[in-house]
Specification:
By secondary structure, this protein is of the alpha/beta class.
């Protein structure tokens, strides 16, 4: 069959870029496919072309996918496209490939390989024990997950022992945990999923005969979702492909959002350098979204520096551009979304950066009996240190006789008395006696200590009479817990979610019971109603999906993006994540912001929203004055270039130094004008400010 005959035989019509990707089968190639460009159809069609027109044995073509589900879906798509006329080539995950390498190596040597530690619960229990042994008191589920994520990162990024010793993770001695975990696996003759890749790479490097066998076995290698593939995975595939140089990567560095799991988009950026003579193909037409959404998303992602030069183009009419929805208060997001859910007739997704953002909405939907579907539920919120502390304090306020609970948090409320002193006094606590009565009646406190205890008793006596929201606010603002968080530099991001839940259940006793109910509900793994058009999902969980309408929540600086001062690399991944969320929408994209948070004016900016809609904090973007090179001043990454510590000069205020940056609003210490808040974006566009 001729090339054009093959193209005409396909049940789908290909555009010129898609056709070039299907027919371009000579040598290494990288296909960069923008969102909604039909990459899976093209990849599957290319496999059929190799088999039908190039005469390649399908058993010599290996397609590596991200997940087992993706492998199954791609096989199904192949069979649908070619109607059973062609034998399907193998589709495997990288772990499946590595498992076969380990097994074949062991069989050749007559040895028994390490077993795969398939029980996630067992490994979690091991890590919990190791965290305790290395100094982490009462490790939370979140800390266990963080340890596992970091272990995965180290192995997938091929970090050296020296580099691992230098890694720091909040709340734990991570290097000690890592090396003791590896020692446990070795002594138990076990390997985890990441070790499968480590061992397979080691085998391929040590056994050239086995490497040559796999190179003969799989002459053509295809990799889907290449932007989400880790460094070790790219190294393994490069080894297998080096003999025949038939490596085909499909991906888009603009959609690389798994950096925390060691995704390595650098492999796409360096592809031409690593594979001399390689082709870089483009698929730039988005067939999913309306033209105005495509245009806005393309302009937004152009701000990133580390990317191939390409543009996303629309195939559909303009339609509606992205909508900035401004609500009066942070808590107004949930009743607003409730009304959308009540009358949901078309596929609608509420997307968010963090799983916790959905909890107040889930609570409200469950109360009202409104159907929804939820992807990727997690219950780590309830074991978070802040949530656990505040609920313990509330429970103690309702039952102040619990001395053991009191000893777990008292020092976080600015009661600076040695634990052994308090524990000794509480051992003489009488039945029915409150902790405060026991301490004040013991005669074992210094006068200043007794004064502190009385002040704390007063606070606790008032908490049960307050609403849940007011009680939490009092604990944080007036009882010392907020200062403890700042002093320990602990993450307080979940406080807003907890306060929102408290607002929906005013009585403290009922609030604590509701939290327990929600925790159990999440633990059941229920995702709401299957097939419901109203879907809740993290953006990570929505990858590869599309919806008629997308509503993105919590899109304010400090939540999304999480930290504007974290450096340009982190900011670029945050921008990619926002881009992925925005491009899930077919018809309508709503971005929810709010003017106040719990009654106080919102201080955080809305950088990404402003950039996507082409405005700066609600004002139309102004053109730079002629001759002032405004486009150059607003080059991608200007937020980082003018971050805290940057010396600047203002036309009116003179020289100064940027002290903080929230969205586009900076606090600048001017040498003569003092500290002032200025809108950097507006100043740059008008030529009022420059770097010194």
């Amino acid at each position: 069959m001729t090339d054009q005959g093959f193209i005409r035989s396909l049940p789908v019509r290909l555009d010129p870029q898609q056709e070039a990707a299907v027919l371009g089968t000579e040598g290494p190639a990288l296909l960069l496919a923008v969102p909604g460009s039909g990459k899976t159809t093209v990849l599957v069609a290319r496999l059929g072309y190799l088999i039908q027109c190039r005469g390649v044995d399908p058993r010599q073509i290996l397609t590596v996918t991200y997940t087992v589900a993706a492998a199954g879906d791609m096989r199904r798509r192949f069979l649908e496209l070619f109607g059973g006329r062609l034998e399907a080539p193998p589709f495997r995950t990288i772990n499946g490939l590595c498992a076969s390498i380990i097994d074949r190596y062991a069989a050749r040597r007559g040895t028994v390989p390490f077993q795969l530690a398939g029980s996630e619960g067992r490994l979690d229990a091991v890590l919990r024990d190791l965290l305790v042994r290395t100094g982490t008191a009462r490790p939370t589920e979140q800390q266990i997950r963080d340890a596992r994520t970091q272990i995965t990162y180290c192995k997938n990024m091929l970090l050296t022992e020296e580099e691992i010793h230098g890694r720091q993770v909040e709340g734990m001695d991570f290097p000690a945990v890592y090396f003791e975990y590896q020692d446990f696996l070795r002594r138990s003759r076990l390997m985890d999923y990441d070790d499968q890749m480590v061992f397979a790479l080691r085998i391929l490097r040590r056994d050239p005969e086995l490497l040559a066998w796999y190179q003969r076995r799989y002459r053509y290698l295809c990799l889907d979702e290449a932007q989400d593939t880790s460094k070790i995975q790219h190294v393994i595939l490069a080894l297998l492909a080096q003999a025949h140089r038939e490596l085909f990567l499909v991906g888009d560095e603009d959609q690389s959002i798994y950096g925390f799991r060691a995704a390595w988009p650098q492999a796409l950026l360096d592809f031409g350098k690593n594979w001399p003579g390689a082709k870089v193909l483009l698929m730039e037409t988005n067939y999913r979204s309306g033209g105005a959404l495509v245009e806005a998303a393309d302009a937004f992602i152009q701000r990133n520096r580390e990317r191939h030069p390409k543009h996303m183009r629309a195939s559909r009419p303009a339609g509606e551009g992205p909508h900035r929805v401004v609500l009066a208060d942070y808590g107004a997001q949930y009743p607003y979304l409730l009304e959308i859910a009540r009358d949901c007739r078309r596929s609608t997704a509420v997307l968010y950066r963090n799983n916790d953002s959905a909890l107040p909405l889930i609570d409200l939907l469950e109360r009202e009996g409104v159907p929804y579907a939820c992807r990727q539920r997690e219950g780590f919120f309830f074991t978070n240190h802040l949530v656990r502390d505040l609920t313990d304090i509330l429970r103690f306020a309702l039952g102040p006789t619990d001395g053991e609970r009191f000893l777990g948090f008292y020092y976080k409320l600015d009661l600076k008395i040695k634990k052994q002193v308090l524990a000794g006094l509480l051992r003489r606590q009488k039945p029915g006696e409150t902790v405060f009565q026991a301490l004040l009646g013991s005669g074992g406190l210094e006068p200043w200590q007794a004064g502190k205890v009385r002040a704390m008793e007063t606070h606790f006596s008032r908490l049960p009479g307050l609403t849940s929201f007011a009680a939490l606010q009092r604990i944080v603002k007036y009882m010392g817990y907020g200062e403890y968080l700042k002093g320990q530099k602990l993450d307080a991001s979940r406080l807003d979610v907890l306060l929102s839940l408290a607002r929906q259940t005013p009585r403290p006793e009922a609030f604590l019971a509701r939290l327990d109910w929600l925790r159990q509900r999440l633990a059941q793994g229920s995702g709401g109603e299957e097939g419901c058009p109203f879907v809740l999902s993290t953006i990570h969980g929505s990858k590869g999906l599309e919806f008629d309408r997308v509503v993105m929540i919590d899109v304010v600086d400090g939540i999304f993006p999480a930290d504007l001062s974290a450096g340009w690399e982190a900011l670029e991944e945050e921008r990619r994540l926002f881009y992925v969320g925005a491009t899930r929408a077919r018809e309508r994209l709503d971005l929810i912001v709010y003017e106040n948070k719990f009654g106080a004016p919102r201080e955080a900016g809305t950088s990404f929203v402003s950039q996507l809609v082409g405005e700066e904090e609600g004002r139309p973007a102004e053109a730079a004055p002629a001759g002032q090179a405004g486009a150059e001043r607003l080059a991608p990454g200007w937020e980082v270039d003018l971050g805290p510590g940057t010396p600047v000069v203002h036309r009116s205020f003179g020289p100064g130094v940027v002290r903080s940056l929230t969205g586009t609003i900076a606090e600048v210490d001017f040498e003569t004008a003092g500290r002032r808040r200025v809108d950097l974006s507006a100043c740059l566009k008008k030529g009022l400010l420059r770097r010194r």
